[in-house]
Design brief:
GO terms for molecular function: ATP binding; protein kinase activity. The protein is α+β, with helices and mostly antiparallel strands and about 375 residues long. It is built from 10 helices and 12 strands. Helix content is about 35%, strand content about 10%. Helix 5 (about 165-185) runs antiparallel to helix 6 (about 280-295) and helix 5 runs antiparallel to helix 8 (about 325-335). The longest helix has 21 residues, at about 1-20.
Length: about 375
Amino acid sequence: MASLAAASESNAQRAEKALAIWGTLGRHLPEDLDQREIWWRDRYTQLRILGYLLRPRYSPEWVPSWKTSKKDWTDCEDGKRLEFGQIIDATRISDGRVVTLKQVKRTDHPYEAEIGLYFSSEPLTSQPANHCVSIYDVLSLNGDDDTALLVMPLLRLYTNPNFDTIGEGVECFRQLFEGLQFMHQHHVAHRDCMNRNIMLDPINLYPHSFHPVETMLNKDCSGSAKHFTRTQRPPKYYFIDFGLSRRYDPSNTNPRDVPIWGGDKEVPEFQNSNEPCNPFATDVFYIGNAIRKDFILKKRGFEFMKPLVADMIQADPAERPNMNEVVSRFAVIRRELNGRKLRTRPVDTDEDLFDRIARTTSHWKRRIVFVARGVSATPDPPAT
């Protein structure tokens, strides 16, 4: 009896914790949809007609699975709420592919679909240097001329799963610099290319996919999502979210635009001024600061990036290198790194001794196999 009581208490605590995280404690039961979810549920049928099927939770006929099973709702796939209300996953009925639908208000972000489609069209979309997320389709909803739904691939944050080697991080930097250079060469400033807007294509890393909300779990939330390392299955990295992006006249080599805040609030030129500034220089700060925060500050082993990143995040935008210079300087850095360094495991700064021993042991087992098989320390990404 005591063990049953303990189990019941544990489930109750888990439920309370989950509700608190959602910010819905005292307002919603697990089976109650919040206002963001209701918006999608009300368009379930229309989206199905358009060729996209939402998860069971958003069907008008949905019955919570925990009501008819012995499972706790926190363990059920249909107990997972959206993380961001304007974004949802769906299955494309024509081929069964899981995609992402993003709700965009044209009055708020008039250029997002336009810029996304520009980079998703030929001849740009097939160029390897293009690291802008593909827009498969733009859906219009009945009776709502202001809302567009962008259909995109299901992606994953670029830092997840963990980087297994320094070389994997180096290849990531190369692709990000290449991708931002490509945008700038086509006269587009991203204007919000901070770390949350950098993703990777998980299709090779996660051959059996993962749950789109609980990304550490498999699709039905019955266990962990199994994955390869980036060395085994090299991913391609992408920039997303062109809501603040702008395309400039090619003849204007030094455009000026009023500051517009993105997700990174550390941009020096935005702090005490509303004076127009060069958005391309701000992009250089964004990507440099992302590498500083996600690698230099969090992991040991990427100290070789400090001089370049320090220049990219200088307070004076005019003193920052442009992306052509960043790509050139990084190519020199990359050539100077030997195979031993590239195969080294980056160590998280908050890693405890037990984790370090366990991760180092498994890392060395993989490393020996990769060296024996002649696997490159900086594997090339898959062809577009």
